Amino acid sequence: MDNVRLLFYEGNVVSAESKRKTEVNRLGKLLIKKGLIRDEDLQSVLKEQQSTGVKIGNILIRNGLVQKEQLKDVIISQITETVVQLFNWKEGIYEFSPQGVPVDREIPISLDTQHLLMEGLRIMDEWSLVEGKLTLDTIFVKKERPKTDLTQDEEEILQFVDGESDVSVMLDASQMDNFQASKALVSLMEKGIIKPIEVAPVIVSPKTTATTLQTKKMIPLAKFVTTIVFLISIFVAPISLLFLKKDNIDVIKASEDIDGIRFRIEVYGYNNGSYPSAIELITKTNDRWGRPYIYRTEGDNFILFSAGTDGKEGTKDDVY
After folding, report:
1. 52-56: long-range contacts (C-beta < 8 A, 24 or more apart)?
2. How many of the other CB atoms lie within 10 Å of CB of 41?
3. How many helices (H) and strands (E) in the chain?
């Protein structure tokens, strides 16, 4: 199971986060595989990120380790892949919360939603040819040395099989056409050169979902795309009103603060193999209303939010 969070601003997608694939892990590994940074650069950036709370991408740019356009291309690719994986879902629970969205002014990302959906449908149509054999989440390990000659595509994609990177990361790192690379992976699997490994699923507790729920129900895949478009249409109208009141400005700032703390928690987990037992290990600051953040660990997952203006957990003004 997975928990995916999409952020929309002025009708466009500005962020897509997956609990299964944390940005710190995926972005860093991908930049290394593309040869844009070294592993020691990433470790240095992660330490700085842990102490400052600044997003890893912003640190990379400020330190001159990656060009802004290079980083934007990688982030846009990640967002696209995260959205595309939703097209594989047969059913799921969706929630819509109209609240302020923090926009990164240093690395502005804004993807046309209609184009993104059309691209997702195109990719899924190609992927139907290898359906049931691998997914974007599949991780492969090398089984044995090739005993037969490999095609150029197979040779190229094989170098990215490391037992850690999933298919989506390998597709990005190889810079091959997605369908072309996928067919090569399937061919390598059928030749017995690589094999998929089992990855423990992320268990998402009902408590980890936002309580500012407007609509919540099980929906089939066929209705999911329509649902996203509908949510966008009702989201665009109120977004401009959010900036008219001080309370809503506080909500936006609180959301930005929480995003920074969440990344620091992810970095802690990356370095220590588990999430911190208490929020005080990450920050001793309170939220915008002077109250402690609500933080809990639940197995391999965690929840972090503010109780908002009223200070009561589980009400509609909670900020995630």
Report:
1. 53/260, 53/261, 53/263, 53/264, 53/283, 54/260, 55/104, 55/259, 55/260, 55/263, 56/23, 56/24, 56/27, 56/28, 56/263
2. 17
3. 10, 8
Which DSSP letter does residue 280 get? G
Instruction: Tell me which residue of 159, 161, 165, 175 sits closest to 136, measured CA to CA.
Output: 165
Task: Return all residues near 35 (Cβ < 8 A) that are at least 6 apart.
Answer: none
Task: Mark the ranges of the chain whose per-residue pLDDT is less than 70.
Answer: 1, 20-26, 126-129, 131, 175, 177, 198-249, 299
Instruction: Kindly state the tokens that stand for 302.
Output: 């965690």
The single-letter code of the amino acid at 170 is M
Cα–Cα distance between 132 and 153 in angstroms, integer?
21
Which class is domain 138-197?
Answer: mainly alpha
Q: How far apart are the first and last CA of the chain?
A: 20
Quote the pLDDT of residue 221: 42
**Rounded Cα gap, residues 64 and 51, in angstroms:** 19
What residue ranges in the chain does DSSP mark as E strands?
4-9, 12-18, 91-93, 139-142, 194-197, 218-220, 294-298, 301-305
Domain ranges of the chain: 4-123+208-245+259-269, 138-197
